[in-house]
Structures are given as structure tokens and as C-alpha cells.
Design goal:
The protein is mostly helical. The chain has one domain (about 1-170): LemA-like domain (de novo design (two linked rop proteins), Up-down Bundle). The chain contains 5 helices and no strands. The longest helix has about 60 residues, at about 1-65. It is rod-shaped. The relative contact order is 0.14.
């Protein structure tokens, strides 16, 4: 009888551990899905910004045919495979360069297509800020889970690592579009 009780206790403990492991593992999977979703949203907005900067090249060239390397950073982006973090930094450089063209080329400020691109860039900046905040909030929760007991045991077994945060705009030069 005592042996049966010991075996029952061991089975209950093992089942309890398996249930806790499964709950933690599923929670990690939920976070990973949400992180991927946030990255896809950021990717879509960054691609939209890239396209807007790309469109502005032909507009700038139409006002100043002597310009050779307009938005050179945009041309470099085409040939590279960048992460969203790197793409975001490159696009900020392109937007800053776009602003300098706006100031030095007459007629660009009044061009309707160029104005529309600027408006779309402002709207995309608002969207990026929101997605960046959402992404960083998910990453904070996920990273806490990776670092805290007992879920850190599941993280180590499953080889989950901390994710980096998406840089805030304060880390970059201020852009005024």
C-alpha cells in the first residue's frame, strides 16, 4: 500500500511538472507569434516608407537634373538584405536627406506629389511609433518571462533567448517632416 501511495505521488508530481512546462511553453509560443506579428507590421510600414522615398527620387530629379546620387542610401537599401532595425535607421537617413533637398531645390515645396509624399511619411511615422511601442511592450513581457523563475527553466530547455528592443526615435536625430 505504501509503495502504491509513493508511486501515485510521483505520478502526480511528474504530471504537475509536465502541465506547468506545457503552460509555460505555450505561453512562450504565444509571445513568439505576437512578436512575429509585430515585426511583420513594422516591416510593412518600413517598406511603405521605402517606397515613398523611392518615389521622391524621380520628383527631385525632375526639378534638378544635375543631381546624380539622390537619396543614395535608398539605392543602397535595394541591394542589401536588412533587418527592420537597420532598415529603419537607413530610412531615417533618407528622410533627413529628403528634407535637405526640400530646402535647397526651388519648387519642390510646392509640388503636389512631393507634398503628398511628405504627408504619407508623417502618417507612417505615427504608425511606426505605435508599432514600435507595441513591439517593445511584447518584448518586455517576453524577456521578463525568459529571465524569471520558473519559466526561465522552460526558456533554457527550449533555447529561448532575450529579444532586442526596437530603438526609440529619441535615439536618432530629430526629423521634422
Amino acid at each position: 500500500m505504501n509503495l502504491f501511495l509513493n508511486i501515485a505521488i510521483i505520478i502526480i508530481v511528474v504530471c504537475g511538472i509536465l502541465i506547468l512546462y506545457t503552460i509555460s511553453y505555450n505561453s512562450f509560443q504565444n509571445y513568439i507569434i505576437r512578436i512575429n506579428e509585430a515585426e511583420n507590421n513594422l516591416d510593412g510600414i518600413l517598406r511603405k516608407r521605402f517606397d515613398l522615398l523611392n518615389k521622391s527620387i524621380s520628383i527631385i530629379k525632375s526639378f534638378d537634373e544635375n543631381k546624380e546620387n539622390i537619396l543614395e542610401c535608398v539605392s543602397k537599401i535595394r541591394s542589401k538584405k536588412l533587418t527592420n532595425f537597420e532598415l529603419d535607421r537607413q530610412l531615417y537617413e533618407g528622410i533627413n536627406e529628403l528634407q535637405s533637398y526640400k530646402e535647397e531645390i526651388d519648387g519642390l515645396k510646392t509640388n503636389e506629389t512631393f507634398i503628398k509624399i511628405e504627408i504619407d511619411l508623417k502618417e507612417s511615422e505615427i504608425e511606426i511609433e505605435a508599432y514600435r511601442k507595441y513591439y517593445n511592450n511584447i518584448i518586455t513581457s517576453y524577456n521578463r518571462k525568459v529571465s524569471s523563475f520558473p519559466t526561465n527553466i522552460v526558456a533554457k530547455i527550449s533555447k529561448y533567448k532575450n529579444f532586442p528592443y526596437f530603438e526609440d526615435k529619441e535615439d536618432k536625430e530629430e526629423i521634422s517632416i
